[in-house]
Amino acid sequence: MHILEASVLSTILLLFIFFDVRRYPLPKQDKGSRFFAELAVTYTCFLVLNIMLHGASQNLFRLGLWEARILWALHVLSIPFLLTLWVHFSLINVAEDTRQVSRFSTLLVLPLVLFAFLVFADLPVQQFYPATPFFTYIWTTPGSSYLFILSSFLCLVMLISPLWNLKTLQGSKPFLAFLLPFTLSIALATFRITHELTLFVTVNSFMLVLNYLVVHRDAVVLDDLTNLSMGPLLQRRLIKAFRNRSQYSLLLVDVENFRLFNSRHGRNTGDRMLQELAAYLKTMPYNQEAFRLKDDRFCLLLHQASSALECAGQLQRRMEDPWQLGEETVYLSLHLLVIHIPEQASSFDELMYIIEQMLQQVKTQQSTSLLVYDANILKVHQHRLDIISALREAIRRPEQVQVYYQPIHDNKTGALSGAEALMRIQNNHLGFLQPDQFIPIAEQTGLIRDLTFIVLDRVCALLGRHPKVRQSIQSISVNLSAEDFTNALLAHDLLEHIQAQGIAEHLISFEITESMIIQSHDTVKQVMHTLSSYGIQFALDDFGSGYSNFSMLMDLPLHTIKFDKQMILKSPESPQLLALLSSMLHALGKTITAEGVACKEEALMVQALMIDRVQGYYYSEPLAEDRFLSLFANCAGCPVLNDI
Fold first, then answer.
1. pLDDT in tens, 80-99
2. Which domain holds residue 291?
3. CA-CA 20 to 30 A from 532: which of 5, 15, 158, 616?
C-alpha cells in the first residue's frame, strides 16, 4: 500500500468516526474524550498535508518556492505534534495524579517548541531540514536526526506512564497503553529505514479506531451489577434528543438513605436490593429505557409525558409493600423526580443543573417523595441558597447580625424586667431578613450554632456597656436551637462567652422549646443542670403549642414558662383553661410569661389571671438596641401598663 492509498483510507475511517460522534456525542466533561477529539482533528490535518504533498510530487498542482517550503515544514512538524497529542491522550487515560500529567506535559512542550523554531528559522537557508523538489526525506540532515530523537523520546514517555501507573490500570487500559508506544515505535523505525510514512499512517489510524471502539464506546456497556445501561449512554441519548428537539420525559429514581440501608442490612443485601429494583424497572409496562447513573440512582427515559407520572405512581405503590430478599424482608423508600424535555430544559447542562437542584429540594422536604419539575421550584431553592450564602457571610462579618430586644414587663408593677433577644440579618443583596426567613434554614444547615454565639456576645456586650441596665433588669434571654445541643461542649462554650465579657451569669437566661427537650432530653438536661449551677435560668418557650408535658416541668430546672401566643389569642372567650394552668404552674413554683399579647382585651385578661410577666406588640415591638435603651431610660412608670 502506498502513502496516498493509506492516507485516503485513513481519511475515510476518520469520517466514519466523526459521523458516529455526531450521532452519539462524546461526553464533554470527560477529559479523555476532549483529547481524543483534538487528536482526531490533528491527525486529519496530518493526512491532508500528506495528500497535498503527494499531489505536488506528482505535479497534480504547482506550488511556489515558499509555499512548498512552508507546506514541507508543516508536514515535518505534524509528526512530533501528533505524537505529543498521543502522549497527552495516554497520560489522561492512565494517570490518576493530575500533577503528574502537568509535569509530563511541560517536558513535552519545550523540545517541540524548539523544533518548531528551528524548522521555521531554516526556511530561508534550507540546511536544518530542507525540502526537495520531489518532497522526499533527507535523513542525513540535523533536522531529521532531531525529529527521530524527539519522536523516540515521545514514545518512551508513552511507555513510562503506564508502567508508573500499572497498579491502577483496569480493564482494557493496560493493553491499549502498552500497545500504543510499541506500534508507534515500530512505525517510526520503519520510517527511519525506508523513508516511507505508510506504516506510520496505518498505525495511527488503527490506534485511533481501536481507542474509539474500546475506550470510548465501552462507556455504553451494561452495568455489571444491575445489567442496566449506564450513564454515558443516557448522556449521549439526551444530547441527541436536545439536538433533534425530541420529546422525552425523565423519571429520576433516587434511593433514600441507601448508605443507612447498607449499614443496617449489609453490603450483599444492598447489592441484591439494587438488582431487584433494577429488574423491576426493566419490567415496568411503559415504553421506557432504564439506566443506572450511580450506586443508588437510576433513570427512566420515557417517550410520553403522561407515562412518567403513571410510572412514578406505580413505583410509589410498589414501595408500600416489602421486598423479600431470601429470608430477609426489607422496605425501601425512593425520591422520584419528573422532568420533561425539551420544554423544561433546553440543553444537557441545564438539565443536569435542574436535576441536582431538584434532588436537594426533595431531600430537604421529608414529606415529599415525588417532585414534578416546575420553574418555581428552582426559584425557591435558589432563594434558599441565597439565604445560606447570606448566613455564611453574616458569620464571617458579624456586624450584619442585628439583635433586636422585645421588652418583657412585670405584670404587677409595669417595670421593665427583661427582654428577649431576637436575631435579624442585614444583607447587602437580600436586604433585611426576618427570623422566619432564615432561622429554619440556619438550623437545617447547622449555621445556627455560630449565630447563637454572635447573639450571646452582642447581649453580653450591651450589658457590659450599660451598668444601669445590669442593675435594673432580671435577665435578657437568648434562644437556643436543637442544633446547638449537638455541640458536646455547649455548656462550657456558653459559659466561656458570658464570662469572657465579665458579665454575671444570672443576667443571661436561655429559652428552649418542648420539641427540643423531647428530641435531645438527656443532653438538654445535662446542659441545663450545668448552667443552672451558675445561676443561669431557663425558660420553656411556646408552652401550649405542643404536648405540654408536665413531667418535664418536674424533671428539669425550668424557672419560667412562656405561654404560647396562640393560647393567649384563644383564651379571652374562655379563660378557664389558662387560669387552671396558671394556678398549677404557680403551685409548682414557676414564673409565667404571656407571649404575643397583642390587644388591650388580652392584656386585661392576662392581668386578671395574675400572670407574672408579659410581652407582645401591645406593649412593644422588638426594638433595635438604641431604641431599647431609650425605652429603658423612660420606662420607670411604664405608662402603657398603668393605663390598663
1. 999 988 888 888 777 656 66
2. 229-373
3. 616
